[in-house]
Amino acid sequence: ALNVGSRVRPRAMLSAFREIGYEVDVVWGWAAERQQEVGAIKQKIAQGMSYDFLYSESSTMPTLLTEKHHLPTHPWLDYGLFHLCHRANIPLGLYYRDVHWRFDFARPDVASLKSLVARFFYHLDLLAYRRWIDVLFLPHHRMLDYVPLWPRWKKVQALPPGGQLVELPFLPVEDDLQLLYVGGVVPPVYNVASLLQGVAEAIARGVRVRLTICCPQEQWVRRPREYDQWLGHWVTVVHTGGEELKGYYQTHHIAMIYWDSSAYLNITLPIKLFEAIGFGRPVVVVNGTAAADIVATEGCGWIVNSDPDDLGALLYRLSTQPDEIERATARTRAASERHTWAVRAEQVATVLCHMHHDRGSKGQ
């Protein structure tokens, strides 16, 4: 199965904090494990341990419903840790991962009891964060418009995903232009109809191009049947992830972060964008998205409308001007060093340690 951001990111950030020199006490797992870890931290604080900061990442589910049975059996455990650190004058930063629950696709039956209960607990999380969190980290500032209850006087900072630096040799375009799409394929969130149609239109123009789609197998089984009209020998579908993805990036020229327009995807930054940048592969992204902001700043690819004609025209241009791909690849390699997980950990540490220093100065 593909590694989703909610699984990859916490481990990557933990490794990054250690990479930049921090000793880290970790609180994660099921409630029983977290209870032991919180107890040990409480004891250390009581014995005079000084922590520079607490960094936390929210779940995609409400905090109190994350047990296997989804019942709030430990209502004070995580909030209690925030309260403990707040009382100990330890700066708290929280990465608020997702606001999918604010969109209709996540709650098709808005009035259902399950949906109403979940929304209550999501709001409860935000009330707790408002009370105890000092810095709210978001994938992109655009997401703040969908975060209710956050006081505008509290600090908010963008903290996009990161990537691992993987040195891949430059791949010249000597035959077919090779495109790689990694991610979901099921609407209403991940609709790749325009991607498939755009590649098919490029083929009709005489462009020698191939597309590899890497997605979860169960999603490809559930794909819309309209996709099939644009499938041909130029499309290969695979279901893999992790280390095996390196081989696919190695044999493809461009990564496609490309789908039909979606209000939700316009405000999010997929981890696959930074994965591609880490591999040194330029990207094609959709105009008007948060991902387009990164590409516009770094020059690490191309921004095109979510429209098959526009995508087909871009692919035709790139096939006739392969030097453009070489230049974009060079810019992507340069950008990759600014978007590692270690850089993200440094950004967190800089903000929260500065806050810690300011508090210490005021206390003297």
Helix content: 40-55%
Q: How many beta strands in the DSSP annotation?
A: 10
Q: List unreliable stretches of 5+ residues.
A: none
Strand order of the largest sheet: 7-6-5-8-9-10
Largest sheet descriptor: 6 strands, parallel
Shape: globular
Can you describe what's shown?
- It is a single chain.
- This protein is an alpha/beta fold and 364 residues long.
- It contains twelve helices and ten strands.
- Helix 4 (113-132) links the parallel strand 2 and strand 3 (135-138).
- Helix 2 packs parallel to helix 3 and helix 5 packs across helix 10 (308-320).
- The longest helix is centred in the C-terminal third of the chain and has 23 residues, at 341-363.
Ordered list of secondary-structure elements with their pairings:
Layout: H1 5-19, H2 31-46, E1 54-57, H3 77-87, E2 92-95, H4 113-132, E3 135-138, E4 155-158, E5 177-182, H5 193-204, E6 209-214, H6 217-221, E7 235-238, H7 244-250, E8 254-257, H8 271-278, E9 283-286, H9 290-298, E10 301-304, H10 308-320, H11 322-336, H12 341-363
Parallel strand pairs: 1-2, 2-3, 3-4, 5-6, 5-8, 6-7, 8-9, 9-10
Helix pairs in contact: 1-12, 2-3, 5-10, 10-11
